[in-house]
TrEMBL record:
This is Rho guanine nucleotide exchange factor 37. Residues 84-97 have a biased composition (Low complexity). Residues 27-43, 100-121 have a biased composition (Basic and acidic residues). Residues 129-316 form the DH domain. One of its GO terms (molecular function) is guanyl-nucleotide exchange factor activity. It comes from the Eukaryota. SUPFAM superfamilies: DBL homology domain (DH-domain). PANTHER family: NUCLEAR FUSION PROTEIN FUS2, RHO GUANINE NUCLEOTIDE EXCHANGE FACTOR 37. GO terms for cellular component: cytoplasm. The lineage of its organism: Eukaryota, Metazoa, Chordata, Craniata, Vertebrata.
Amino acid sequence: MEVPRRPQPSSFTLALPKPLGAIQKVTKKDPVEEKLQEKDGTTEKNQFGEETFSTEEKSGVSVLVEASAETSEIEDLNTSSVTDSKLSSQDSFSEDSSISEERLAQEAEEAKKKSEEEEAAAKERAAQRQLLAIEELVHSERNYLRLLQLSTVTIRSNLQKLQPPPANLDSMFLYIDEVIEVSSRLLSMLDQKQVRPGDPQFLETLCDSFLSLSSDIEAAYNEYLANYNHITVVENSYKQKEGLWNEIVKVIKASAPDVNATSLSFFLVMPVQRIARYPLLLQTIQKHTDQAHPAYALLEQTAHTSIALNCRINEYKRFREV
């Protein structure tokens, strides 16, 4: 009986590692560099098989280094230039700020001067308007008195010469003499002071004169306005007689050729209008008078007095009518 043989291991060989000297150094190449090297044909290898640059490449590297250094210098110059520019800008901004402040100060001074000039001009205009308002009051008072005297002296006397004279003629002129008298006294008081309307003291004189005559003014106008309805009634009776009325109109035109009047009521309504106009004239003067004026408080009192006079006269008129 044969004993089976053990299977013999098949022969095989192991690949031994190569000696260290035989190991080649592997370097990773840049594909771009390989293409450039293949194109130029200037790549060299050292003893370890490493690629080295040729002399031209080294020169190129040197040029690149120098160019890099020049670029760095240029950047430094640019940085210095920017810094200088910033400093110059700051200096320019400082100068502009200084100029701007001076300009603002100059403009503020000019604005202040202009404001002062405008204020002075406004005060001058107000003073001129105040003077015109005072002159208007005085001038209109003189003209008012002249027309009243014309109606009572010239026209009245000429109407009385008619044959026969108009009936109830004297009743139309009731109480007008008292109105003329108080107006004459007011103007006389202003003339006696010998001050002109442009004089600062004239306003005080005017107010004092009006206030001192306020009670006499009220008394005279009370009766005249209470009788005024009678004046209109009498005149309407004249108008109903055509021949008489034509004669009256002729006398009025001949007695007052410079006045475009065609009736007696043209003159006789003037006291009614005048007493109502005093407050308006005085308030106009007050409007254009500076509150710092010495006579301002007195003027204000005079204006209030004239308003109160009108109220009391109207109340008296209504009382008489009842």
